[in-house]
Amino acid sequence: MNCWEYMQCGREPGGCKVAELGACPAATEERFDGVNRGQNAGRFCWVVAGTLCKGEVQGTFAKKFRNCLQCRFYLEVEKQEGRALVLMVEEEIQ
Q1: Which of 17, 30, 51, 90 is deepest in the core (most CB within 10 A)?
Q2: Total domain count for the chain?
Q3: Considering the domain boundaries, does residue 21 fall inside one?
Q4: Which range marks the domain in which residue 14 is found?
Q5: Does 3 score more than 60 pLDDT?
Q6: What is the pLDDT at residue 91?
Q7: 56 within domain boundaries
Q8: pTM for this entry
Q9: Residue 8, Cβ neighbours under 10 Å: how many?
């Protein structure tokens, strides 16, 4: 399951909140397709700037990662992926 499915944010392409908030960069970022077995950055959303958390658009990895570590979706991906979890890359999306 990808973050937009799990969190039901409506920011995936064609989602109910796209007109209001825009499409989520995690749902459209193709460079991370397949990371942690997700579609685009759907299971790697913590490295992508501009995702939604608690109703607010988030900034860069460095600014948001502490919050992500407490996110129920991140914790689920961490549990599912175990030692195979890809946590970060050299360059996050700005």
Answers
A1: 51
A2: 1
A3: yes
A4: 3-84
A5: yes
A6: 60
A7: yes
A8: 0.89
A9: 12
